[in-house]
Amino acid sequence: MINDAHTEKLRLKVRFDCRGEGKQGGLFSRGREGEEMAEEAREQKAILLRNIPIQGVRIDEVNTNSEVYVVNDEANGREIAYAPVEFILEADTIEEVIPFLLRDEFRKVEVLSPEEILLEKYQVERIIYRINEELRSYRLYLEKQLSR
After folding, report:
1. Using omega within 30 degrees of 0 as the cis cutoff, is the peptide bond preceding 114 cis?
2. Reduced to 3 states, what is the DSSP secondary structure of residue 56?
3. Nearest residue to 90 via CA among 13, 147, 31, 30
């Protein structure tokens, strides 16, 4: 159980799906190009997860062996490839994992341990505050991208 004493670390299995989109062009080349781009994005993400230190978080067991899958984007009629990367994330608090769970690539999370999590009122308040901070930061990033 995670509580004030933080007796057991939070362990999560997280899945990100890295996106790859081929250029519009030939009928047969688009999908393959998108798959290659997705695989390249996945490899870059795996390198970052393995090598960039994040205070309060440890990344274990990065798995890049899942099959690339392709979906049709109905909005623009293009095929988009996704390459899954799964990893085990270990953290002392829930607040430390929020930035991972609010990423565009995030698809799935499974709590491996502890079996039960007990949160005090102030902990819930900190979690809500952290979510708000992450969303605000992302909104500012999007505004900068759109103003270019």
Report:
1. yes
2. coil
3. 13
Total domain count for the chain? 1
Tell me the residue ranges of DSSP E strands in 1-148. Answer: 10-21, 57-63, 69-73, 78-91, 106-113
What is the CATH number for 44? 3.30.70
Give the residue among 101, 95, 90 at the shortest CA–CA distance from 120.
Answer: 95
pLDDT digits (tens, 9 = 90+) for 113-132: 999 999 999 999 999 999 99
Contact 120, 4 (CB under 8 A): yes
Mean pLDDT computed over every residue of the chain: 88
Q: Is-above-0.85 flag for pTM?
A: no
- Is 147 inside a domain boundary? no
Which residue would you say has higher pLDDT here, 52 or 83?
83
Asked whether residue 133 is assigned to any structural domain, the reply reads no
- The domain in which residue 27 lies consists of 10-117
Instruction: Number of helices (H) and strands (E) in the chain: give both, helices first.
Output: 3, 5
Give me the phi and psi of 134, to 5 degrees please. Answer: -65, -45
